[in-house]
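Table S2 (text version). Query chain:
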Amino acid sequence: NVRIYNKALTSSEIQDHYNKVKLYYTPSFKFDGVNDYINITNRDKLNFMHGADNPNSFQFSAEFWMKTNNATPNNVYGLLSDDAGSSANTGFDIFYDDRVSQSRTRTIRLVINNGTSGNAVIAFGTANNIYPNDNNWNHVVITYDHSLSSQNAVIYINGTRIATGDKNANT
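Corresponding structure-token output:
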């Protein structure tokens, strides 16, 4: 299940979602790990997630469950994306990053580009070896609030705040 909100959820809202959903969770979609994805055909509906509609004040939360078991090392797995690498330099990417060559091992990362400066609004992730590779379903929430002076992005795993990141000063 994937939920996207046009606001930054609070810690208590995230904990509440985790506690309620973990009791009843059954995935709506089951992926076999080979070229599986859900395509959102109207990309404009996600503009609030990268500031295309309002580059000075935007916020969102993305909530989903994921499970890894023996993820292939030295790979990147896209989780949610509005193609931050697009030629228009707008969008967002949330991904599982296990590229040792980039000094990343089992991290969850967020990159947002809003096309206004040519630089990423934010590019950050968890510390290495944070995401469990345990063959269990894990609840992941990422919030972003551009209006804050610091700790604009927060990553939660299973209801626990794992990492915070600050937006770039020039965005």
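Notes on Table S2: Residues 98 and 105 are 4 Å apart (CA to CA). The longest strand covers residues 59-66.
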